[in-house]
Amino acid sequence: MHLIIANKLYSSWSMRPWLVLRALDFEFTETVIPLRREDTKARISEYSPSGKVPVLLDGDIVVWDSLAIISHLADRFPEKPIWPKDPAARARAKSISAEMHSGFQALRQACPMNLGKRYAPRDLGEGVAADVARIEMIFRDTRAKFGDSGPFLFGAFSAADAMYAPVLSRFETYAIPVKPEARAYMDSVFAHPAFARWRREALSEEWTIPDFELGYEVAADLRAGVA
Amino acid sequence: MHLIIANKLYSSWSMRPWLVLRALDFEFTETVIPLRREDTKARISEYSPSGKVPVLLDGDIVVWDSLAIISHLADRFPEKPIWPKDPAARARAKSISAEMHSGFQALRQACPMNLGKRYAPRDLGEGVAADVARIEMIFRDTRAKFGDSGPFLFGAFSAADAMYAPVLSRFETYAIPVKPEARAYMDSVFAHPAFARWRREALSEEWTIPDFELGYEVAADLRAGVA
User: Fold this and answer.
1) Which of A58, A87, A99 sits opposite B65 (nearest CB)?
2) pLDDT in tens, B177-196
3) Which of B58, B68, B94 sits opposite A72 (nearest CB)?
4) pLDDT band at residue A225 using 50, 70 and 90 as cut-offs
5) B72 to A94: CB separation less than 8 angstroms, yes or no
6) Which of A5, A154, B151, B185 is the most buried (most CB within 10 A)?
């Protein structure tokens, strides 16, 4: 299998299927196509019928979109614990993953993913606050009902954690205050070897895209010396 | 199974899982909760952890979001032809469904679903034009590669058709010009008994929501006498 993604520093959609593949020990190769360069469009179009990344080539099969790639992997590799096995947990995992996939526009717009920065706390507005409150409720409810057997949403790491991982990084990047239980869950995801590897590789990228580097006050630059 | 949805006239998210259930002859009951009324929020919250519809109750299992409900049904009823069987077709069906689920914001924002109106043609802007062009390309490519055996995207009616059905109704409502091949596909969906039934039931609803009734010039009011 071959996964085509964009900048690890910025591409939240790319992170999701990559985390699933890496965390669940799939064998795959990857190509990173940096965004906003002269040849970006042409390079992505070589692989992707939608002109977007991520896209997965699985032999002759082409599948694009983070959630579709995850769903495809679950079809093709039913032995891999991509979704929880218990039907109620599985339904919940799919529900919250789909809610992430189509929702939380305010948060996504105000807080683009940027693993290289820590911004000083600031008021991000009511829309973002409502999104954060809903996400914290999702974590709390899901962990309470289904998370007994481990530190992730459904105990063991699953696709649902991968779907929410970029948002966790935004909480950190934008210094968004969260309750201790959400903080503990975030730390578990950040400590997962797959997330840690993605972050390390993101920080070593040499590309910087001004549009994703907001004019907010910077509290820490984790890429000092890179750009 | 019990599906909870909103106004059939306006709720594009509700239409999708309902069409899958109805077109594939599932047995289910339904509750329609009209939007924007005093008790709307309380009534939806009785059923839905996300506070949104659609939500499906499958015994003890609760699943929300149109795409998650479809994915849940595919898990629980593998004998139903929700997705195409061929792996490449199935991957394509999931890709375009996910693309619909998270995309086409410009079209969705400028053209809310309203099965009761036909508006006069007007310039809907570049964003809408780009969305329409991409959707037409999806129809053309998918039908060419996978649609030989019937009039729908993958020949027989599948979840991918249900995911795109609301957008087809928007093409009609807003008099958006489409190429003849897309028109033929639209007509096939509109003629499907499940879609025809949804439309009939939508037109007989007695609720009208001003926010969804745009100030555009009306070419035809299909609900004359209702509101």
Assistant:
1) A99
2) 999 999 999 999 999 999 99
3) B94
4) low
5) yes
6) A154
Q: Tally A–B CB contacts below 8 A.
A: 96
For B91-116, what is each residue's pLDDT tens digit?
Answer: 999 999 999 999 999 999 999 999 99
The single-letter code of the amino acid at B187 is: D
- Kindly determine whether residue A68 and residue B141, on different chains, have CB atoms separated by under 8 Å: no
pLDDT for res A212? 86
CB contact under 8 A, B71 and A58: no
Residue B215 in any domain: the answer is no
Interface predicted TM-score (ipTM) of this complex, two decimals: 0.95
Contact B95 A50 (CB under 8 A): yes
- Could you say which residues from 24 to 43 on chain A have a Cβ atom under 8 Å away from some Cβ of chain B? none
Split into its structural domains, chain A has a count of 2
Residues of A in contact with B91 (CB under 8 A): 58, 61-63, 68, 72
- Domain containing A163 — which CATH number? 1.20.1050.10
**Coil, helix or strand at residue A48:** coil
Q: What separation in angstroms does the CA of B150 have from each of A168, B61, B66?
A: 45, 34, 25
Domain co-membership, B44 together with B121: no
Peptide bond into A54 cis (omega under 30): yes
pTM: 0.96
Percent helix, percent strand, percent coil in chain B, to nearest 5: 50, 10, 35
Residue A101 sits in the same domain as residue A55: no
Question: B126 and B45: one domain?
Answer: no
Closest chain A C-alpha to B78 CA, distance in angstroms: 11
Does residue B162 sit in the same domain as residue B98? yes
**Same domain for B123 and B26?**
no
Would residue A175 be called left, alpha or beta, if left means φ above 0 and alpha means ψ between -120 and 50 degrees? left
Reported as a single tens digit per residue, the pLDDT across B47-101 is: 999 899 999 999 999 999 999 999 999 999 999 999 999 999 999 999 999 999 9
Range of the domain at B165: 87-199
Tell me the backbone φ, ψ of residue B149, rounded to 5 degrees: -90, 5
Contact B87 A50 (CB under 8 A): no
Span A154-161, average pLDDT: 98
pLDDT band at A215 (very low <50, low <70, confident <90, very high): confident
B136 touches A: beta carbon within 8 Å: no
**CA dihedral (A69, A72, A77, A83) positive or negative:** positive
Mind telling me how many Å the CA of A140 is from chain B's nearest CA?
A: 12
